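Quick one: Proline dehydrogenase from Neogobius melanostomus, structure tokens please.
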Amino acid sequence: MFHVRALPSLTRTGVAPFLSHRRARSTSSISAARTEHAPTVSGRGHSSPSSRANEISVDFEQTQEAYKSKDSLELLRSLVVFKLCSYDFLVDKNKELSTLGQKVLGRTLFNKVMKMTFYGQFVAGEDHVAIKPLIQKNQAYGVGSVLDYSVEEDIDEEEIQQKEPCVSAADPSSNDHGEKRYKVDSELRSVHGEVTTAPTYFHADEAKCDHHMETFIKCIKASGGASMDGFSAIKVTALGRPQFLLELSEVTVKWRRFFNFLALQQGKVVGQVSEQRVENAVSPLCLDRSIDVLDWNSLLDDRDKCADLLVVPNVKLGKLEPLLKDFSDEDEKQMQRILQRLDALAKHAVENRVRLMVDAEQTYLQPAISRLALEMQRVYNKEKPVIFNTYQCYLKEAFDSVSTDVALSCREGWHFAAKLVRGAYMYQEKGRAEELGYEDPINPDYESTNRMYHRCLDFVLDEIARNGNANVMVASHNEDTVKHTLRRMNELGLMPRENKVYFGQLLGMCDQISFPLGQAGFPVYKYVPYGPIDEVMPYLTRRAQENRGFMQGVQKERGLLWKELRRRAASGELLHRPVY
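--- reply ---
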């Protein structure tokens, strides 16, 4: 058991006045926000007769409306692709089969086959010119686009930098406050060998980071040129060294765990994390009588002023040690370079009237990614939501992350903007937790994840109804979740035209959800990958693997596709062509 020793007051560092100002401003801004944005529409939050008259319901069984943007060959292609993706052998051996197919058919014929099947189903085209017809067609039927230039690189062993050793940032239950260590090179190789939901870039070259930034800029411009109010997806691992993101995640998680430890020690672990405070009697870093988690986290923003006073417990040694002892000047420069690249992307997004979607990645990188996303939201979300951060609801701490960030946005006066996903790193994260011997960060089962998703979603929807400064994309293929969202929107009096609640699905999947929503007036988007066939093959490989479970469970969608084909055959509409 360690004991917290008294440290000099932070007042001498100049941080105390800064935080006092933040605290005073936050209290008044929250009150002002709740007054200014207090709902005045009758029925918001209540089921009054007028609100019930405005309720919107969506029928996801009407195949004629759901598939009128598709010709019959496209419906047949969907049936074939979904069926093929349900066979484990084809999914497990897809790389080998692709290589064999190119040898037997030749590259030209193989590419034609891919365009007729998997590539044509899940990818919009080879470049920003080729994708425009599909984007414009979808937009004509009420569905927008989240563009993602999906060229991915396989990781060579030489590209993975060696480093001795680095603290795991994804150890949410460790009793030694982050002292579990592992070699980054072996962990990154382990990561590369698993199924992931979004590409994680590993590179040692700053020039490659700049190249990735330029690629994202092209994607942003393509999104702005192809549609109005679109989205563009970006990945922070493409903009900086993953080893740095590991280190920043380590610092962030250790600091948060120390707050949790102090709150537990004082018996303050009640209510939401954002409402918890620790008292000056125990914490050496409290400035007044107590401090909440938001101001606690903000101390990291002033690490240059109080680095010597930012300490965390080392259980093994039984004493406090500097939090930033392994955070070098080069790490600080790396953080500034990543922020500069993110800033350049955000500026291009504003110029092109595009919103940026920051993709979520593995848990041991995510604390750093979320922190960098918050830095950009503070700057660019003041007037309207431009930067959207992604929250993975299969994580046990998802609600704490969402509620804390919502509270921070209210305190500082910017628009909270989130994409809620269930997550697709489940098997990787579970395996890693078992290998390193820490508690699994993933919810124990699918139902737990559903409950977490709906809890986070309900919290954000309530915040939207309360002050209008929050925004959320419900990125889900789960029909029950979509129906739950519609029901809650009706209860809260949230209308589609307010553009506060968005829906998102992948291109080539769940059209029976996306298009009825769009035609009913809801803001709905398809995640639209594009890129050359040869270079997009890793994306298609990953997509087939990560959606294996989902594809095996699309009996309803396949049934609806057959139902529509039979309807067209009976009514003489097999030659149906979309009109837009």
